[in-house]
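Protocol step 4 of 5: obtain the predicted structure for the target chain.
Materials: sequence only (see below). No template structures provided, no constraints applied. The aim of this step is simply to have a reference model before the mutagenesis design in step 5. Sequence pasted as it appears in the construct record:
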Amino acid sequence: MKVLLNLEPSSLFPTRSIFADRSRSSTRLPVLPFPKLCRRRWIVRRLSSPARAVLDSAPVEQFEIPEFDFRNPSLSSSYRDPAMPKPNQTVLEAQARVCTGPMQTRPLDEEQAFKVFDTILRSARGELKDEDEVSKAQLGAFFAGMTIRANAFPEATQWSEGETRAMKTFWPLLVRALPSDVIFVADPEGSMMGLGSSIGPQYVGNGTSEMRLVGALREVLAGGHLGFEEVQGVLKEVLPFQEGDGKPPQGVSEALLSAFLIGQRMNRETDRELKAYCLAFDDEYGPAPIADVRSLTHYGEPYDGNTRFFRSTLFVAAVRSCYGESCLLHGVDWMSPKGGVTEEQMLKYMGANINLSPSKATKLLEDDEVGFAYVSQRDARPSLYSLVRIREHIKKRPPLATTEKVQQYVKASGKEAMVAGFYHEGYEEPLLMLMKRRGIHSGLVVKGEEGALSMTTRLRSVNASKGLPVNYCSGFRSLNIPSTSEPGGVTRQGFHLEINAKDYGFQPTDTPRTDRSVSKNIELGLEALRGEKGPAYDRIVLNAGMVDHLLGADGAEDVSVSLDRAREAIDSGNALKRLLNYIKISHKVD
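Step 4 output (structure tokens):
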């Protein structure tokens, strides 16, 4: 934190030297020493007059921001656990092409297919070691993708001629080298290339947990769907996943689990399946604690973070808390596939306590000097967090990437709302469905940049891709009219629109780039909370005021008033003060 409050982060962590070396040996970056400089001078010299007055009235040292152990924050990927084995890159690139949806899959050509199958064969024979070895999670995901494509995908995304030739060449060799669980995933009917193997048809797994998983996986590999109870039963049987030679004590193969997770996503989950993933571990630590607050908004940012653009939600939460709109953020330290900047990385760099239970977060929500909190999935849902490594080796996002954004780690005595980001068209309605299932009063999904939930002030590009535009919003508000058909027994009013920031008085500007730099993201956010006008300031104001308006927050009926209220929270210095309060008080809650 001393670095942050004294010097420009870029002066201590030169971006050029980090991005120049992309070799595998440079994944763990060196920690540079903190200089012993005056922290107060760095903040105060950059503040606008009202904000400066806030800090002039009390020394910055009173915040007692602690020292802590951290990795170099100039690159978000440095937060990846270095103890996790890396996936084989050749097979991972193939997974990116073939472990996706019926319309998105890109079949491998002959050269690519032969290279992939040769890599898998050499790994199965023990000829590849360490990072070159193909993990069982990769084998499960890759062969699940191949099987589902053959069984259920349209002709255009089924096996290419090159893939078929490669399989004819390699399968007689692979069937003698691969373990039985992987052979089952690749050939559940025992009919691959006319060899008539009995391994797949007769495979039942080892132990009751794996037997249940195998039974469900047969349906998934055929392109089918499962019921709510069946999905929940499987998840509760196999999670938390425990590392250890690919087969933990409860007897669940990571190849089978990976095949199950990616297979359900490739088949496009039904509402029943998504609800099962969303609610499966609500009772992991008992009932959610209840915060005694008038209003609480749950923010569901994509857990894999931002790799290109400024991530504003942490600073938006500080703003909205100033006028009684309490905010609960949740996420992880690092998540694939993007491995981008997350709220947890920023809070850790700034010195906040990132290991809060939901009960402790409740106290920060109720604190009149804070009003927002962050909870890590690691502390709230360890069963789901146990999948971080497997998710990296799966490559593509599993169903949990959608449902983890709609978690309710804390409940409120007053009104509750949820906001979540999405990218792929077709997931906006499932997200809203899950929000309604939570029984909240208002819900909003936003197609922000990078699939995040933040709206931008830039103009829509004339070369924008097809589909829903950036800044598309869809949601619902409760009307306080009793209903017998709606979840929760209340009537909800739906809406959808595209937000053009220019219509609300914002000058069009490009979103600031951070390019995986945690420190740069913090620098932009603090400059904005200090009252410095610019693209980051405008983006925070837009997202605070517009979310208030769309969710039907008290005092936000007029959008211009709502935006002005957000500006006042920043220009008065209150939002910055609350963020600093959070850093200090998060270490003192008990």
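Step 4 remarks: The radius of gyration is 25 Å. The first strand starts at residue 290 and ends at 291.
Proceed to step 5.
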